[in-house]
C-alpha cells in the first residue's frame, strides 16, 4: 500500500470515494510525477511540488499553488467554486466537477513542474 493509499484509508469513510477519485485522476494525468506525503497531504512532485490534495472536514482541498489558481480564477468564479491564494475547495455534498479539476491538474503541472 502506498503512502497516499494509506492516507485515504485513514480518512473518514464517507469521504474515501471522493479521495480515491481524485487520487486516480491525478495518477492518470501525472504519470511521470513522484507520489509522496508532503505537509501532511498527498502530493505529486516533479522537481518540486506540483499539486497536493487533502481531506478537510467539509470539503476536498486541492492545493496547486497560487499560479494555477490565478490562471483559472475566472473559471472558478463562473462555476461558483470557493478558492483562495493557494487552495480550491470542493464540498463533499456536491458532485465533483471532474472536467474543471482535470484542467486544474493540467495547469498545475504546466506551471509548477521542473524537468
UniProtKB/TrEMBL annotation:
Q: Where is the YdhG-like domain?
A: 16-108
Q: Name one Pfam family in it.
A: DUF1801
Q: Which domain of life is it from?
A: Bacteria
* Stored InterPro entries: YdhG-like
Protein name listed in UniProt: Uncharacterized conserved protein YdhG, YjbR/CyaY-like superfamily, DUF1801 family
Amino acid at each position: 500500500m502506498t503512502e497516499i493509499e494509506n492516507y485515504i484509508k485513514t480518512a473518514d469513510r464517507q469521504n474515501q470515494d471522493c479521495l480515491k477519485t481524485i487520487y486516480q485522476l491525478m495518477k492518470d494525468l501525472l504519470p511521470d510525477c513522484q507520489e509522496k506525503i508532503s505537509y501532511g497531504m498527498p502530493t505529486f512532485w516533479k522537481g518540486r511540488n506540483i499539486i497536493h490534495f487533502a481531506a478537510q472536514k467539509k470539503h476536498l482541498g486541492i492545493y496547486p499553488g497560487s499560479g494555477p489558481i490565478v490562471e483559472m480564477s475566472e473559471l472558478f468564479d463562473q462555476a461558483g467554486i470557493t478558492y483562495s491564494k493557494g487552495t480550491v475547495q470542493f464540498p463533499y455534498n456536491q458532485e465533483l466537477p471532474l472536467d474543471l479539476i482535470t484542467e486544474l491538474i493540467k495547469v498545475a503541472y504546466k506551471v509548477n513542474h521542473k524537468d
